[in-house]
TrEMBL record:
It comes from Paracoccus broussonetiae. This is Alpha/beta hydrolase. SUPFAM superfamilies: alpha/beta-Hydrolases (SSF53474).
Length: 240
C-alpha cells in the first residue's frame, strides 16, 4: 500500500499496483479498534476483502473523530482523481461504518456496506450513548454530529447491525428508503462484523452486497448465516 495522505489527522493509503487494471475503487474506513480505549492509531480494515472487488484504498481517522477532524473535500478529491471515473464502493465497521456512509455522497459511491455503524456519538444528539465518550469528549467542532441527511438517494446501501438495545438506538434512526437495505441480526451486539467473519459468513455477505442484483434480499438468499430481519419494507422497486 502506498501513502496518498498522511497528516496529523488522517492517513490514506492506496494499493497502487492494483490500480491500472481495477474495475472499481473500494474505499475502506478503519474503526476505533479493540478495547475500551484503544492505543495508537486505528489499523486498516477489510483490505483483503476490498482487494477482491477492485483497488483497495484505506482511510484512517487517526484521532477517532468520526470524520470531524478530517479534511473530507481533500480526501474525496484525491480518491476521485485515482478513480478516474470508475465506480467507487465504500466499506467499514463501527466508526468506519459511520464514515463509509458519511463519504458515500462526496465519493459518489455506487454501493456502501456498513456494519455496526453508529448513527451518532455526539452527546447533544445521542445523550444515552456513552461507549465512546473518551473520544467524543475530545472532538472540538462537530461538523458531522450524526448521519442525518447523509444517506443519499443514489448510492445502494447495505447496513448490518446487532439487535441489542444499545445498537437499536442507532439503526432505528436510519432512513427507510428504496436504495437502502437495513438488516438487524438477532442476538448480536456491536461486534457483529467480527462474529460474521469468525463464522465464515462475511465473504458471502460482501459478495451479495457488492455484486448481486440490487433487488435480491440477503435473507431470502440465505447468506447471513444468522437469524435476521430487514428493516426496509420488501417489495420496493430497485433503484438505478
Amino acid at each position: 500500500m502506498d501513502i496518498l495522505i498522511d497528516d496529523d489527522g488522517c492517513r490514506v493509503e492506496i494499493d497502487r499496483a492494483a490500480l491500472p487494471t481495477a474495475e472499481r475503487i473500494v474505499v475502506t474506513f478503519a474503526g476505533v479498534g479493540r478495547g475500551r480505549i484503544p492505543k495508537g492509531i486505528p489499523v486498516p480494515q477489510f483490505i483483503g476483502s476490498a482487494s477482491r472487488y477492485g483497488a483497495a484504498v484505506s482511510v484512517i481517522d487517526k484521532n477517532r473523530t468520526w470524520g470531524n477532524g478530517l479534511n473530507v473535500p481533500a480526501i474525496t478529491s484525491g480518491i476521485l482523481d485515482l478513480a478516474e471515473g470508475r465506480p467507487v464502493f465504500t466499506l467499514g465497521t463501527s466508526m468506519g461504518g459511520f464514515l463509509a456512509i458519511l463519504f458515500s455522497t462526496p465519493l459518489r459511491a455506487e454501493r456502501t456496506v456498513s456494519a455496526g455503524a453508529q448513527y451518532s456519538v455526539c452527546p447533544s444528539v445521542m445523550s444515552s450513548e456513552h461507549r465512546w465518550d473518551y473520544f467524543a469528549r475530545r472532538i472540538g467542532e462537530w461538523w458531522y454530529p450524526s448521519l442525518n441527511g447523509y444517506f443519499n438517494l443514489a448510492t445502494k446501501y447495505v447496513t448490518l447491525n446487532g439487535s441489542i438495545w444499545q445498537e437499536r438506538r442507532h439503526w432505528s434512526q436510519f432512513p427507510l428508503q428504496e436504495n437502502a437495505q437495513h438488516y438487524v441480526i438477532e442476538g448480536m451486539g456491536h461486534n457483529l462484523a467480527a462474529r460474521l467473519k469468525d463464522a465464515g459468513a462475511l465473504p458471502g455477505i460482501l459478495d451479495h452486497a457488492f455484486l448481486a442484483d440490487w433487488g435480491s434480499d440477503m435473507i431470502d438468499a440465505g447468506v447471513l448465516g444468522f437469524p435476521a430481519r430487514r428493516l426496509a419494507p420488501k417489495g420496493l422497486h430497485p433503484v438505478g
